[in-house]
Design goal:
- With about 300 residues, the protein is an alpha/beta fold.
- About 45% of the residues lie in helices and about 20% in strands.
- The chain has 14 helices and 10 strands.
- Strands 1-2-4-5-6-7-8-9 form an 8-stranded mixed β-barrel, surrounded by 4 helices.
- Helix 4 runs parallel beside helix 6 and helix 6 runs parallel beside helix 8.
- The longest helix has 21 residues.
- It is globular, with a radius of gyration of 19 Å.
Length: about 300
């Protein structure tokens, strides 16, 4: 009934996938806290590269749940549960700590990569969040400018004043900030201009169709121009083909992320890939696409 009202359709056919109280979801909710305690979560990493040189600049950390009964679960199955129950706070702390631990290992092995972590609305509006980030950076001895925190437009617009305060404190620490999925939210140019961010990430829904859809091509080109005019780097998500890579190069986009470079993969697989003589863009390592499975 509530789903039908929300969709303004008057009725909906029951779908267990959207039932927040389905037995599976309730069982997952009960196990999520134990998953944090039992270290059942794992991170996969999707590389990001400079579009001009192909040099790998960093990786985005994406959490998975190695469930004892259901196997490897994508974030879309448990992140919404964590958001609704407040477990998103300990979950984000776990992701931050694990990501920074991996970044420290890469730095020790000679790969000075940045590491990107997605930040939920609840964390973005938590005044203690910058202190939590600072503590974890110090504990892992990772420079602040090697951490990129990604926020969405909708997260910022949930409470712009509080979000700007938290983002400002993170920026003052030297942490890099990115607006994720840009173009899919509703932020005004006034708020975008005020955000202390370093990157705009063009949503994959525009990048994937820009070669065949004139409107998407215009959006991608305009976003790149807007980002550069604001002094920001622009990252294209969902780059899956050589044609897309070359078109983005021609448009002056800075960074690419997607299947063409590499899929999300365990750290050990990314280590082997980085250890190759000269990794270059091309159909990448094992794993599922970030956008197909949700993020954190």
């Amino acid at each position: 009934m509530y789903a039908a009202k929300h969709a303004h359709t008057g009725f909906m056919v029951y779908d267990p996938a959207v039932d927040q109280h389905s037995p599976r979801r309730l069982a997952l909710l009960g196990g999520l806290r134990r998953a944090l305690e039992r270290d059942e979560l794992v991170l996969h990493f999707q590389p990001k590269a400079d579009l001009g040189s192909g040099q790998v600049l960093g990786a985005e950390a994406l959490v998975r749940w190695q469930h004892p009964d259901h196997g490897l679960l994508a974030p879309g199955e448990f992140i919404p549960l964590a958001e609704r129950t407040g477990l998103i706070h300990p979950l984000t702390r776990w992701v931050l700590d694990a990501a920074l631990r991996q970044a420290a290992e890469w730095h020790r092995s000679g790969h000075r990569l940045s590491i990107a972590v997605n930040v939920s609305t609840r964390c973005l509006l938590d005044p203690s969040f910058p202190d939590q980030v600072s503590e974890r950076l110090a504990a892992r001895e990772v420079p602040a400018d090697c951490l990129m925190l990604e926020v969405t437009e909708s997260a910022v617009m949930a409470d712009p004043a509080r979000a700007l305060d938290v983002l400002g404190r993170l920026h003052a620490m030297g942490v890099k900030l990115a607006v994720d999925d840009f173009g899919t939210g509703y932020s005004s140019m006034a708020y975008l201009k005020a955000l202390p961010v370093d990157e705009l990430k063009v949503d994959r829904s525009f990048v994937g169709q820009m070669s065949s859809n004139t409107s998407d091509a215009v959006i991608v080109r305009s976003t790149i121009d807007l980002g550069h005019n604001l002094g920001l780097r622009v990252v294209a998500e969902g780059v899956e083909t050589q044609d897309a890579w070359q078109e983005l190069q021609a448009l002056g986009c800075d960074t690419a992320q997607g299947y063409y470079l590499g899929r999300p993969m365990p750290a050990a697989d990314l280590d082997r890939w980085l250890g190759a003589a000269s990794p270059r863009p091309g159909p990448g390592g094992p794993g599922e696409d970030k956008e197909a499975s949700g993020v954190i």
